[in-house]
Amino acid sequence: MEGASMSTNPRTVDEVFKDFKGRRSGMLKALTTDVEEFYRQCDPEKENLCLYGFPDEAWEVNLPAEEVPPELPEPALGINFARDGMQRKDWLSLVAVHSDAWLLAVAFYYGARFDKNERALKRTDLPILEEGHPRLISEKKCFGDIYRKRLFTMINELPTVFDVVTGKKPVKEKPAVNSSGTKAKSATKVQQVTQAKPAKPAPPPPKDEEEPLDDEDDEEHGDTFCGSCGGPYTADEFWIGCDICEKWFHGKCVKITPARAEHIKQYKCPSCSNKRART
């Protein structure tokens, strides 16, 4: 089965985390920007189908692996059977939470085999004595546990697929603050986040070089995530907001450039555009 055999066999914490993010991005695409195609492929008349995410950020709906036991843990079986028996959003939410469970299963399948002699631990990974000196770990069996704990911490900093699909991580629109200190309201949500445009506020308010607002910006926009890939807000990327569902997206995820955005009066994300087309 093609989906099960696409394995990169990562060995280190960073490699496993990279594999996790790639598979997660692929599943998010299936459930957000590519949702119409995903919905079409999940035909209830077909046999048991699974949703697979791959390290290269691709996704696939396919039959489960034939070999027993499979090379990797398998995702939820038969997601297509419930498609027409539930509300669409409830069905997508169900697939999303099962996708989260599968992503963790694959990550910890690799994590369970971390080599005890893989590499020396970073100083920050080591327990600290009261004197402030790192304690030497003589028991190598501790290494795998620390690697897995570090892996889970890295994974836990990302919103889950379920959070992104269901909007549990809402994007709060923040009013921009101009140089006079007054708040400016926007008529649309398109902006190059590295520039201050009072008429089109981006997720963060514009930075004022005379006022140290960096810490405040980080706190206010820590809950801003891309509605497509689920990635967190970064100030050096272009973002665009949907005027229908009010979710924010990386411009590259929805194929919108800053130049093109300047000519858009009301932006609708791919999901909202598809909904409007069906009605």
UniProtKB/TrEMBL annotation:
An annotated GO BP: chromatin organization
Composition bias type Polar residues, residue spans: 177-195
Disordered: annotated span: 172-222
Main location: nucleus
Gene3D superfamilies named in the record: Zinc/RING finger domain, C3HC4 (zinc finger)
GO molecular function, one term: histone binding
Subcellular location per the Swiss-Prot or TrEMBL entry: Nucleus
Family: Belongs to the Alfin family.
Name of the protein in its database record: PHD-type domain-containing protein
Protein species of origin: Physcomitrium patens
